[in-house]
């Protein structure tokens, strides 16, 4: 099967990542229209050889013309317009630089292969699977059909119950019963003729009673069947659809594809709840009928209590399941890192009831607390305890939300640690560090509806509470590890014995850390470099296990810091200082020195690439270039990494554009000419430089050890 066809069969979460790969530089429509031809070309070779890139580019324009002709024959005006626009854009942008479009297409194909590999591995490893786009649609159609069938059956049953309780029929039955009783009592006074009339009347009464009994039994049987159908649909909604939404919410919290809206689930659950309340009213009507007319073997007497208990249980459980945390706790200043809360800093969260009953508007008062059920556990583990400050109660309403949902948003909550004699921690064994402690924020309320009192309670995903912002990296690592490896909603003891993860799981989450805050995730080559740093050299990293300690706590070989501390600082560096260059794909980033030398050595002098420093704990970026010595021998040179402190004073693009060194004749020259593979430096970085920042930056030969750029001092080393 063609690669593009395989991609269309992926789960929704992977399709979301696929959509992010494409932009105006290489539109998805073109990928769709020319899928077989695109996959048949060697784009990687074209990206490194201009003559071949030119040939492939002109062939691409020819394929577009052929596809345009097909659309012309089909009279597809929209596709004709789109294809004409795409061709004009490609010609204007890539006609003089075909290697660039080759590089873009090659990267997209690599990313597609990574998605397919990740999805295949996930299925083989037995991870929690999400239905594919096609299956989800089919399941939703079946679910909606079942809900529609329930509504029709409820309406039909309601009409039959109304017929059963028809005042005329009931009155006729009661009068005939009274008359029959009177005639029976007069048998002895009127002789055998009266006795015969009485027997005839009794026969009629028995027939009426038999018909009534049959009708009641039919209604009771149908009602029992309808409750079973409701039970089935409810389990589908709560155990599958809602559970799937909660898992996607977990994934979205750690940078995965955005979660879907709750509106459709709310519509389904509200529809089922309305049908359940209608059935409950019908059961009450049966009780009224029983009180008016009852007899030995009456099916209402036999089955009504069980039916009443069943429908009440269904409605209670549905209401409890429908109370959810729509938006997990998050500090507004750190929107990309939810579930990490700093004491004394406000955080927000939002709860929602997926049963949209207007009569409940402004009727439900929500109270917030923390660690409600884990007090004993906290004492055993020696965890800290906290109080929630701020507006910790709020009434649910339909006015604050844009879609009229019944919700309550808490915007002014803070946590304060309860102080004990030993700094807040109990005297028990405190085996976990504070960034491994997990806490639950609980929301509770009471519903009074149609004579029922229902206690509702839901809770957030486990949160990590920090007291200093420097604890954020390790706290976020805990959030990643927990939500990557479990969908257990409240396992606060998770880190007493943290499970291992596979490289496939870790690689996906690491890529999300970039794609969720930038426009670009990690390529397979970049992920392979990270795998080597974590696991050492290996032929195939798929399935390799990674411990929590290896990921976050143990120092890397030969380094004084852990893998995660190093990577998190690089993520911060990208977001704050080099985001535009990363989004353009100009930063190779993660590449081993062996691979770096291998791809640069064949290149002409002046070719350079950008990569992250492996030795800088705080996050650094450097560039490596090719040059020839006086004997014509190829040499690979690198500059000492630039850190956040240095990038605060001058942008990285300006540093690259102005970078110069002394050559052997003491003349200032720029060793940086082409960004790998062959992008002119000015084309790549010129647009990111301020006009006033264009004067050259002077640097001595790398061998001298020091260099000066304006007021910034850098040191340059070879490595």
UniProtKB/TrEMBL annotation:
Name one molecular function that GO assigns to this entry. DNA-binding transcription factor activity
Of which family is this protein a member? Belongs to the transcription factor STAT family.
UniProt feature coiled coil, ranges: none
Q: Which UniProt keywords apply?
A: Activator, Cytoplasm, DNA-binding, Nucleus, Phosphoprotein, SH2 domain, Transcription, Transcription regulation
The protein's name in its UniProt record = Signal transducer and activator of transcription
Q: Name one Pfam family in it.
A: SH2
Q: Which GO terms describe its biological process?
A: anatomical structure morphogenesis; epithelium development; signal transduction
* UniProt keyword S-adenosyl-L-methionine present: no
In terms of PANTHER family, this protein maps to: SIGNAL TRANSDUCER AND ACTIVATOR OF TRANSCRIPTION (PTHR11801)
Recorded GO CC terms: cytoplasm; nucleus
Broad class of the protein's primary localization: cytoplasm
Record-annotated SH2 domain positions: 582-672
Subcellular location per UniProt equals: Cytoplasm; Nucleus
């Amino acid at each position: 099967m063609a690669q593009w066809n395989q991609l269309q069969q992926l789960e929704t979460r992977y399709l979301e990542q696929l959509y992010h790969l494409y932009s105006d530089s290489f539109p998805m429509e073109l990928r769709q229209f020319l899928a077989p031809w695109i996959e048949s070309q060697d784009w990687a070779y074209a990206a490194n050889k201009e003559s071949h890139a030119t040939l492939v580019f002109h062939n691409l324009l020819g394929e577009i013309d052929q596809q345009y002709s097909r659309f012309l024959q089909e009279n597809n005006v929209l596709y004709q317009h789109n294809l004409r626009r795409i061709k004009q854009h490609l010609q204007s942008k890539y006609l003089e630089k075909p290697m660039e479009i080759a590089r873009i297409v090659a990267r997209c194909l690599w990313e597609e292969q990574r998605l397919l590999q990740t999805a295949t591995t996930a299925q083989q490893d037995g991870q929690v699977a999400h239905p594919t786009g096609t299956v989800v649609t089919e399941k939703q159609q079946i679910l909606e059909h079942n809900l529609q069938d329930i509504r029709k059956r409820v309406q039909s049953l309601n009409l039959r119950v109304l017929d059963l309780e028809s005042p005329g029929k009931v009155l006729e039955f009661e009068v005939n019963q009274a008359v029959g009783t009177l005639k029976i009592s007069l048998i002895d006074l009127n002789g055998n003729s009266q006795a015969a009339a009485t027997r005839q009347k009794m026969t009629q009464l028995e027939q009426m009673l038999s018909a009534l009994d049959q009708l009641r039994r039919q209604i009771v049987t149908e009602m029992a069947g309808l409750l079973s159908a409701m039970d089935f649909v409810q389990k589908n909604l709560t155990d599958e659809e809602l559970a799937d939404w909660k898992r996607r919410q977990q994934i979205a919290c750690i940078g995965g594809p955005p979660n879907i809206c709750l509106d459709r689930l709310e519509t389904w659950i509200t529809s089922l709840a309305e049908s359940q309340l209608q059935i409950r009213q019908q059961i009450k009507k049966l009780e009224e009928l029983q009180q008016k007319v009852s007899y030995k073997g009456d099916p209402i007497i036999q089955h009504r209590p069980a039916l009443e208990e069943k429908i009440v249980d269904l409605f209670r459980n549905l209401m409890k399941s429908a109370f959810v945390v729509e938006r997990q706790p998050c500090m507004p200043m750190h929107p990309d890192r939810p579930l990490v809360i700093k004491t004394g800093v406000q955080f927000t969260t939002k709860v929602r009831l997926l049963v949209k009953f207007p009569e409940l508007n402004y009727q439900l008062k929500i109270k917030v607390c923390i660690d409600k059920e884990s007090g004993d556990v906290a004492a055993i583990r020696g965890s800290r305890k906290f109080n929630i400050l701020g507006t910790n109660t709020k009434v649910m309403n339909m006015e604050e939300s844009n879609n009229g949902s019944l919700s309550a948003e808490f915007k002014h909550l803070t946590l304060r640690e309860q102080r004990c004699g030993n700094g807040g921690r109990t005297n028990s064994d405190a085996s976990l560090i504070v960034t491994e402690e997990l806490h639950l924020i609980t929301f509770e309320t009471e519903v009074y509806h149609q004579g029922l009192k229902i206690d509702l309670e839901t809770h957030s995903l486990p949160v990590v509470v920090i007291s200093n912002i420097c604890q954020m990296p390790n706290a976020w690592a805990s959030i990643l590890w927990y939500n990557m490896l479990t969908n257990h909603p409240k396992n606060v003891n998770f880190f007493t014995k943290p499970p291992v993860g596979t490289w496939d799981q870790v690689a996906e989450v690491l890529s999300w850390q970039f794609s969720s805050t930038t426009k670009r995730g990690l390529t397979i080559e970049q992920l392979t470099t990270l795998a080597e740093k974590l696991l050492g050299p290996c032929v195939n990293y798929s399935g390799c296990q990674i411990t929590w300690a290896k990921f976050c706590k143990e120092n890397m070989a030969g380094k004084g810091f852990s893998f995660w501390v190093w990577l998190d600082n690089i993520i911060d560096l990208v977001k704050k200082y080099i985001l535009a260059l990363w989004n353009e794909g100009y930063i190779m980033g993660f590449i081993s020195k062996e691979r770096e030398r291998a791809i640069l050595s064949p290149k002409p002098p002046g070719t350079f690439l950008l990569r992250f420093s492996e030795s800088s704990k705080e996050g650094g970026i450097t560039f490596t270039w090719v040059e020839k010595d006086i004997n014509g021998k190829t040499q690979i040179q690198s500059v000492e990494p630039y850190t956040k402190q240095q990038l605060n004073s001058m942008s990285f693009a300006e540093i690259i554009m102005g970078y110069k060194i002394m050559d052997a004749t003491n003349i200032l020259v720029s060793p940086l000419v082409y960004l790998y593979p062959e992008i002119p430096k000015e084309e790549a970085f010129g647009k990111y430089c301020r006009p006033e920042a264009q004067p050259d930056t002077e640097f001595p030969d790398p061998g001298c050890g020091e260099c000066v750029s304006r007021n910034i001092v850098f040191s340059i080393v070879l490595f």
